[in-house]
Design a protein that fits this description.
- The chain has a six-stranded mixed beta barrel with strand order 7-11-8-10-9-12. Strands 1-2-3 form a three-stranded parallel β-sheet, with no helix packed on it. It has a three-stranded antiparallel β-sheet with strand order 4-5-6, with no helix packed on it.
- Helix 1 runs parallel beside helix 3.
- It has eleven helices and twelve strands.
- A hairpin with a 6-residue loop joins strand 4 and strand 5.
- The chain is globular, with a radius of gyration of 24 Å.
- The chain has 370 residues and is α/β, with parallel strands linked by helices.
- The longest helix has 15 residues.
Amino acid sequence: QSPPEGAVGFVGATGPKGEFHGAVAGAEAEASYSDRPLNINQTAQEILDANDPPIRMLWVACKNPFAQDFDRNKMLKAFEKLEMVVCVDQFFNETVQHADIVLPCTTTFEEWNVDSSYWHYWISINEPAIKPMYESKSDLEIATLLSRTINKLEDGSCTFPQEFEPKQWLDKEFNEGMAKMFGISSWEELLDGPRKAIMPSSAAWYDRKFKTPSGKYEFKSELCEKNGHTALPEYKPAAQGKREFHLFTPHVQYGIHSQFINLDWMQVFYPEPFVYLHPDAATQKGIRENSLVKVFNDAGEVELRARITTNVPADFLVMYEAWFPGRKFNVQNLVEDTPADMGLMKTGAPGAAIHSQFADIELISHEGVS
């Protein structure tokens, strides 16, 4: 069935559904409407294309689309189409600046949570150090209060829980799989100290069991063929762009996204953004070390200083993804939302071809170059 007017859900087209999907709260029957799945890797394009019905409102939480999503100029057009934008955030970032309503959310100092990390194999408990400041609430509490209000207006219209108790949510979050991985029975044991994941003593697939239909390493994959690819590996030529240089935008060594870059002592190592290019490319474009340059393509442009290095191939430009306080620099200004050829099977929507981007570079000035 078609969704109610303005409904939107950024999940995969055939991907996994949330635990509250499909049934009205407190009832056994299926809801009289369904989610409308949209590809989160093409947020702006999906908002622009959705017209039956159009997306009229966007609720943004735990995300900063203008800093994280692709093609900033397209995102601006998408936000212009929306009638209302609500942002829940801790900071007045660029997305918040485009919101009609801003709701403050709690920080990690004000809420219970179970924390893992990209950086290590440990898990720990986040215990609130202070009570929530002023009217700040956690994203979960805001969601439950919103669900309660919506259901008062129209009973059964929102399937999200209507009650919030932080420790009860932790009980639900800490499942059997997590307990087994960390060798504990409850999150409450983390109050005695963090725990390290119980990892196999050998390398991955040490038992020669693979997560394939056959349980073996598959050179020929019927599952791959079923999902629109070839059963056997075949060579595909590299992506070709209209611009001269292949553009790579990896993580910077000294932080991840916006994390850590604003620390004073980190800025000693990486004080400003640079674009790295090969000496041959620099000579061709008349660029010197520390020249001010413009990197551009159909999606947008950025201005920054150049660094010349043989670590970069002659037909490549490299700009590290990072946030710099007080600067407009953002690599996403040059990253188009080109869909990749994989991702549909697992997430319901194709991934983004982040490493198939192209750009040009030109000299602005040699000002400040010694």
